[in-house]
Inverse folding.
């Protein structure tokens, strides 16, 4: 059993950057098509990272490199734990740890845009952290375990019992994948007031590491989306993949439809959605069980 | 797979009529769509590979352009867009204009036009990307030889052993002091109806005189650059 876990972890470590990079490229192509442009090739993110690895890396202070590297390691660790069938709670705690590392990397540079980005990233974390914890709790209520291995062996898909958690999670996915209405900390679209927020003072291979970590992150997040649909029945995996595709497309669509909001709006909207959908769902589960 | 597939562009307006800037932005629109070549218009010098300069350089923007150039990690190229960035254009005779972008930073590609056509601009960037690839190879050699470090003040010019000559370094030559001198000479020249040759010779003389004392100034500037 442990050997199989190690194999699954290795598969994740090797394949996740490929899938994540492709998804990121696909996101850019689909966005371009939505705007009536041809868009870059699907492999563009790989070209970007390859270029960044070949560029000179300017470092503001040496601890920045440490934080960025630890960020990548923690992100990989989080995903590995999840796909190897580990504990959901530990997955989410490690995930927030990795985010903290990125924030620290930005704070350590002492640049105005980096610090502003870091502060906004903390606000974003404040928005989505309750929901990630609630998702773990929701899975526990639905299937009586925090272990991913047990959760994927149920008879009924989790979404039947916790649809509210699913809606809440997809909502915070917009923040987590850095999509437009809530893309406060790293303004991905060109020429905004933040320059590049968190990543302003990262260059060359450091920036490449952050990009790679984000690919891992995308795969992990879509994995959690898939968790809502997976049962003991193998056919359910197809449903999981379809749901991942739909959610990812939805995020790209929302990215192109909405302008950025202020952080207060983000806080109010996110917490309202979490409270209304996940909170109500939790309440109903509590009453029924 | 090489570096030329994702040139990220930084755009800075020295002091132009904004015609060229609008054309630069026009290349991002669905009609020209430079993102299909992987070109992204980034606002961050630390992420950029290509520096697009529009408009002539005046005494106030000269240090900014130099700082942007110094903040860009190697390998990097500079594209002067429009006739003003190439040699000063219609503003050349103004008292505050130092001239084209090549007065402050080494320019690799000159794209003329008033305003520059988006097609010409795209061609210019594509040419610049070719130079970028050459520079990357040179940089690799110099890294092996140990000439290239992360020191901002030195990355700009001495990419190989042959290129390294302190007296020709732009950073060393064009301190703010030298630029002010240049501007003052120009003001003097325009105040009196003086003959033209004096005007052309003055900047070179100013540069030569400022060269030896310039190294600490450049280092000073870099400290500021890191904080910004």
């Amino acid at each position: 059993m442990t050997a199989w876990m190690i194999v699954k972890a290795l598969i994740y470590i090797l394949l996740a950057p490929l899938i994540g990079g492709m998804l990121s490229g696909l996101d850019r192509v689909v966005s371009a098509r939505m705007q009536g442009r041809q868009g870059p090739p699907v492999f563009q993110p790989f070209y970007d990272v390859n270029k960044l690895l070949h560029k000179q890396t300017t470092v503001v202070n040496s601890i920045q490199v440490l934080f960025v590297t630890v960020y990548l390691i923690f992100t990989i660790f989080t995903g590995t734990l999840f796909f190897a069938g580990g504990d959901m709670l530990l997955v989410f705690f490690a995930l927030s740890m990795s985010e903290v590392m990125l924030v620290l990397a930005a704070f350590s540079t002492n640049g105005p845009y980096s610090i502003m980005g870091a502060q906004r990233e903390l606000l974003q974390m404040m928005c989505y952290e309750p929901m990630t914890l609630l998702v773990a709790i929701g899975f526990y209520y639905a299937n009586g375990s925090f272990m991913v291995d047990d959760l994927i062996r149920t008879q009924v898909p989790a979404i039947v019992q916790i649809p509210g958690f699913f809606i809440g999670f997809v909502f915070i996915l917009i923040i987590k994948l850095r999509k437009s209405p809530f893309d406060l900390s790293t303004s991905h679209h060109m020429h905004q007031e933040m320059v590049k927020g968190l990543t302003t003072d990262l260059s060359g291979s450091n920036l490449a590491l952050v990009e790679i970590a984000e690919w891992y992150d995308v795969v992990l997040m879509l994995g959690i989306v898939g968790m809502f649909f997976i049962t003991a029945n193998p056919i359910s995996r197809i449903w999981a993949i379809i749901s991942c595709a739909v959610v990812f497309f939805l995020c790209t669509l929302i990215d192109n439809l909405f302008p950025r909001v202020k952080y207060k709006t983000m806080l109010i909207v996110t917490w309202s959605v979490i409270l209304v959908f996940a909170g109500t769902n939790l309440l109903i589960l509590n009453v029924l069980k | 797979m090489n570096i030329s597939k994702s040139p990220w562009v930084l755009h800075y307006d020295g002091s132009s009529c904004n015609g060229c800037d609008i054309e630069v932005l026009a290349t991002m629109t669905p009609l020209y769509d430079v993102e299909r070549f992987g070109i992204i218009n980034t606002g961050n010098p630390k992420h950029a590979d290509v520096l697009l300069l529009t408009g002539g350089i005046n005494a106030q923007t000269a240090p900014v352009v130099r700082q942007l150039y110094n903040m860009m990690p190697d390998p990097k190229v500079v594209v002067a867009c429009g006739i003003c960035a190439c040699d000063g254009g219609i503003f050349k005779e103004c008292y505050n204009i130092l001239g084209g972008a090549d007065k402050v930073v080494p320019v690799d590609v000159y794209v003329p036009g008033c305003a520059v056509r988006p097609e010409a601009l795209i061609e210019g960037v594509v040419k610049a990307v070719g130079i970028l690839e050459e520079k990357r190879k040179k940089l690799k050699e110099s890294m092996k030889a140990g000439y290239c470090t992360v020191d901002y003040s030195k990355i700009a010019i001495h990419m190989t052993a042959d290129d390294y000559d302190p007296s020709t370094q732009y950073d060393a030559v064009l301190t703010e002091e030298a630029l002010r001198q240049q501007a003052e000479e120009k003001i003097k020249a325009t105040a009196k109806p003086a003959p033209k040759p004096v005007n052309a010779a003055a900047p070179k003389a100013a540069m030569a005189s400022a060269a030896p004392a310039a190294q600490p100034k450049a280092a000073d500037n870099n400290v500021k650059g890191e904080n910004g």
